[in-house]
Write a sequence for this structure.
């Protein structure tokens, strides 16, 4: 039986991690344990995303530790301080465009950071088997959160399954693929209890506005141009972030040790079709003229090595764990747009940081 009592969430101040902590502490009554959020607060981490959690659960069931996952001593001290029995590893450098501009941080955090966590977990959870040999406790779990991008790029047909060979094509996806391999290497070599999930594109509240959906929403609200890479026909499969997180929690609870699960929205869109749908929703809610917003769509230079299509077969997750999505894409997009319209303070907080400089330097000139 997994203990699931002292849960270390890495990257809990980021987009998916902070949504995960909200779901776990506010919407999962069966969970009675503690959450320890280990986050370095890089440009993508934002303590403000968890202000409500901090005030409701801080010091009793929620603890924040600012640390870097590549810092072995800090990671070991956190395992010890909280007697960690479960790791849910979200922390990563996550943006493909940034990995093209500067891959080094991706190798450091995604590869070395994952290695550091795995090795610290292996040591902290070391045990002696009944026959006197060295082993690892069986009531612990290391869950690794990964991406569908490790599988490469699809043509017009087909889906990624759990047995699709890895074929990463960006520095980001290569670093995530590498971390996935390390996770299974620790399972096969040392017996570390692990599970792994590969998810498609998430969207929802607290999404950093360098990614397609929040960038477009904010640009529309500010009357800025809407930059579409290449011909706009690249396809992504979109999943509401809360539904990703309920899948992760289902795997952590009931997923088979040593197994990987694909998570997807079964919801493929070309970028340009998605943008038109988003324009309709934003224009209606923010009382903008949709034709005027549409006129700001600008086709820009393509992303180098831009993967053409991602599509996920998540039948294993659905059949084994009974997971299903809670919202349609229409509902999820509407919730997301409402969230950005109603959370100006959060948005202003992001804009007042390095974000503006970065966007101006790397995005506006495209
Ligand atoms: P994000 O960039 O929004 O957040 C990453 C978080 O990790 C931030 O809070 C950041 O401060 C923290 N972090 C980065 N480097 C760190 C380090 N060295 N030490 C400690 N903390 C560090 O990312 P996200 O979109 O929330 O993605 C979370 C995870 O989910 C990643 O592993 C990503 O690969 C995976 N994933 C994301 C998506 C998506 O659509 N966003 C889809 C599938 C999988
Ligand atoms: O300005 C833009 N214009 C544009 O056309 C941006 C930012 C993106 N795009 C395109 C590129 C992609 O085809 O939109 C699509 C989505 O782009 P991103 O939001 O950057 O996401 P993507 O590259 O697909 O990766 C995301 O999903 C998988 C996450 O960032 C990853 O962390 C996750 O693993």
């Amino acid at each position: 039986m997994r203990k699931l009592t002292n849960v270390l969430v890495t990257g809990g101040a980021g987009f998916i991690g902070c949504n995960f902590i909200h779901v776990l502490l506010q919407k999962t009554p069966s969970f009675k344990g503690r959450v320890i959020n280990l986050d370095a607060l890089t440009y993508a981490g934002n303590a403000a995303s968890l202000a409500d959690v901090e005030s409701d659960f801080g010091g009793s069931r929620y603890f924040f530790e600012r640390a870097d996952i590549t810092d072995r001593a800090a990671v070991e001290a956190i395992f010890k301080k909280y007697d960690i029995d479960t790791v849910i590893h979200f922390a990563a450098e996550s943006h493909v465009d940034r990995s093209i501009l500067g891959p080094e941080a991706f190798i450091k955090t995604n590869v070395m950071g994952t290695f550091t966590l795995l090795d610290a977990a292996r040591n902290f959870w070391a045990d002696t088997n009944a026959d006197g040999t060295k082993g690892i406790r069986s009531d612990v779990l290391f869950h690794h959160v990964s991406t569908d991008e490790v599988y490469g790029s699809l043509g017009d047909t087909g889906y990624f399954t759990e047995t699709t060979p890895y074929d990463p094509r960006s520095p980001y996806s290569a670093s995530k693929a590498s971390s996935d391999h390390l996770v299974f290497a620790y399972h096969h070599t040392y017996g570390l209890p692990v599970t792994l999930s590969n998810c498609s594109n998430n969207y929802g509240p607290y999404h950093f506005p360098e990614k397609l959906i929040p960038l477009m929403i904010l640009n529309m609200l500010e009357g800025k141009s809407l930059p579409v890479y290449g011909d706009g026909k690249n396809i992504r499969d979109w999943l509401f972030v809360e539904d990703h997180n309920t899948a992760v929690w289902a795997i952590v609870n009931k997923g088979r040790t040593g197994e990987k699960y694909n998570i997807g929205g079964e919801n493929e869109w070309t970028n340009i079709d998605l943008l038109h749908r988003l324009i309709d929703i934003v224009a209606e809610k923010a009382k903008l003229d949709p034709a005027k917003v549409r006129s700001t769509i600008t086709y820009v230079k393509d992303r180098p090595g831009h993967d053409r299509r991602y599509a996920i077969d998540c039948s294993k997750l659905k059949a084994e764990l009974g997971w299903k999505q809670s919202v349609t894409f229409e509902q999820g997009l509407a919730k997301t747009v409402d969230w950005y319209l109603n959370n100006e303070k959060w948005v202003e907080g992001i804009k007042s940081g390095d974000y503006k400089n970065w966007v101006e330097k790397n995005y506006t000139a495209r």
Notes: The mean pLDDT is 97.
